[in-house]
Write a structure and sequence with these properties.
The chain is mainly alpha-helical. It contains 7 helices and 3 strands.
Amino acid sequence: MTRSGKRLIERGVIGGRQPAYNLIDEKQREYILGEFKAIGGDPAILAFNEGSFTGYDDAADKINIKGNIFPRETESHPRSRMGVRAVLAHELAHRRYRFTPLRPGSWNDEFRTSYWAAKNIPNLSKRDRADLINDAMMRADEAQQSFRRLNAVMKSILRGEYEPK
């Protein structure tokens, strides 16, 4: 497995989503491109059916798109039910933090990425934002890191009242 593949596994993008080995067909590709453009992403950084899983590859500055971009909505875990647009927002936020001191895939890298995406990426639904915040909190919980209380932005997103500036 490649180094970038190991980082993607560490980032936990596999979860209970659709299988990564499912290839993206042309219809799905067009849908994903539309979702990515809607959140302000540059389609030139998307790489379809490349890599091991859906995830940001820091070294290549690409978001690899595989079948696990699609949710398994019957699951209760936020990473499993997160919609395509939320996943793309999370991966786009990884690009924002490229080459920062936190180790890619660490719980706090994943926490800040989901939090930043929920707070700043345009054109996300209330559910997308809430799933991203729940993912951030789950990342902390899984790493046995706790915080005392939700900040005002997190509360606002979870109540469905938040609108990005």
